[in-house]
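Need the bound structure for glycyl-adenosine-5'-phosphate, inputs here:
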Amino acid sequence: MSKSPDSESQLERMEKIVSLAKRRGFIFQSSEIYGGIGGFWDYGPLGAELKRNLRDTWWRTMTRDREDVVGLDATIIMHPAIWKASGHVDTFADLMRECTITNKRVRADHVEPQSGSVIKFIGAKSPNANGGWSIDRVFTVLMKQGEHIESFRKRVRLLLTQNAGIAAGKPDEIELLGEERIDVVTDSVDFHPETGGLLNEARPFNLMLKTYIGPTATENDIAYLRPETAQAIFAQFKNVCDSSRVKVPFGIGQIGKAFRNEVTPKNFTFRSREFEQMELEFFIKPDEAVQLIHGSVAIWSEGADLSEPQPNWGWEMWHRYWVAERTAYYAGIGLSSEVLDYTWQTKADLAHYARACVDILFKFPFGTEELEGIAARGSFDLTQHQTHSGKQLEYFDEELKAACDKLTAEQKSTFIAEAYAKRFNPDTTLEETMAFCEKLFKGLYIPHVIEPSAGLDRLALAILANSFEEEVVTDEKGKSEMRTVLHFHPRIAPIKVGIFPLLKNKPELVAKAREIVSLLRPHMAVFYDETGAIGRRYRRQDEAGTPFGVTIDFDTLGEEKPEFKNTVTLRERDSMQQRRIPIAELLPFLLSQIL
Ligand code: GAP
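Answer from helper R.:
Posting the output first, comments after.
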């Protein structure tokens, strides 16, 4: 949910970012030479590198650097029963409304309030087009406050010819019939934001994209392109447990494509129809199991130490821990706390099974919007898949079994009574609580899950927006110019270092520069550039977000100043400071900055 209104300068900033993204090869419209396709985007040479670096930082932080998380790489198309079990077939829908003139769709919660006069027409005709045509139905359009009646009529004629194939011919030839002002509205959400046409009632629209498996293409062959990567993790939970010697608490992380037939894709790549998610399902013991093993459960309170996971943590500590971990991750790639915000869902907003959910938001130029959601989902997902697949997805916890074996019958009864009194869902019956506890006493439970779920494309957009700056710089001669710079953190910058021989027609300089390229290329993305004045070459790399530039000049050759032999100029993008550094120190220095 957007938190701040758009401002003129912010929208202008966004336009500049979109334009730079295309000009420098970060992001292109998909299928652009055919007019584009709404909600799909391609990443150009710099964008592909940026995205790959972001993906790698997530994977490293969330899986490789941790002992308690493993990875998964599942298929995009899975058994359709998975989406029935997860609830996506029945409930993964947005409320959608349709323009009654053009059939253009809009998400019900994306209709901006509009004011003006409601104008009804009883039809339209065009005597000159292909022998003439007419529309014999009533249609209603909003004439926006401040809109001139003649411009309005022109707009309506255009609507009829340009949209939904209602009419053919030239707009000027259309005669609008029975024009009548029937109402004046203020802040109405009943008109399409683009066309102004009256909207019909809201209807649910399932967001999953369908396809068919096999050659017959009947209803029985329907499959879905996954709308999230998470469900594959639940579906493969047992295989991962059986093959990987993991012990709860542990997580399974996955990065991959997801598809949603968004009603109104918008804000550049922010809401796309094809995008990439980076999701972790972190499985934890139910609080009751923690209680049985440790005699108490650590509950979160303000100021709680979240630095190191502890065996007696309950779900809330784990949830808060992951919010802190994810916040630290964002700080590590340049998104500090000043540009982030958090929305905690209230109890009333939460899904019936969820215990907590927080959205991490980024302050995009078009508003403060969700970057990642972190949900405590209880045991809902695994329970659903256990029920629908008929396969046991319970986890056997040796530690729990050992602890329960020491309990007397009386202690077990007391535990059941306490568990019933503290049950999360008031609808849970005593019988259900007893059955759950009896399983626990045998060491069995369905793990609960904490789910940090982030969007890679949204993150790339946030990084672009956060890094973009235009600044006026003045050189030693007092000449000022505008510098466009992307302040990417070196860790995620598409190109880490630009290599520039001072002059391209001096073979000794070029050879030395090529030597440095060969030295660095096995370790990082480098860009060799020998054309144009050195200042222009710096600017080109500033705009690409390259954090370092290395210039090879005559001092490098040490002909006049032997003390500078085998040194180069290292320029730092943000400060534009330059210093001399021995070539031998280049690689260790750059590696220390980018890892
Ligand atoms: N498994 C949980 C889940 O999918 P979500 O909030 O629907 O939760 C998680 O999606 C993240 O995926 C979002 O925070 C966002 O970053 C990204 N995302 C969702 N829909 C998107 C879209 N249409 N375009 C781009 N990114 C999207």
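Comments: DSSP finds 18 helices and 29 strands in the chain. Residues 45-64 form the longest helix (20 residues).
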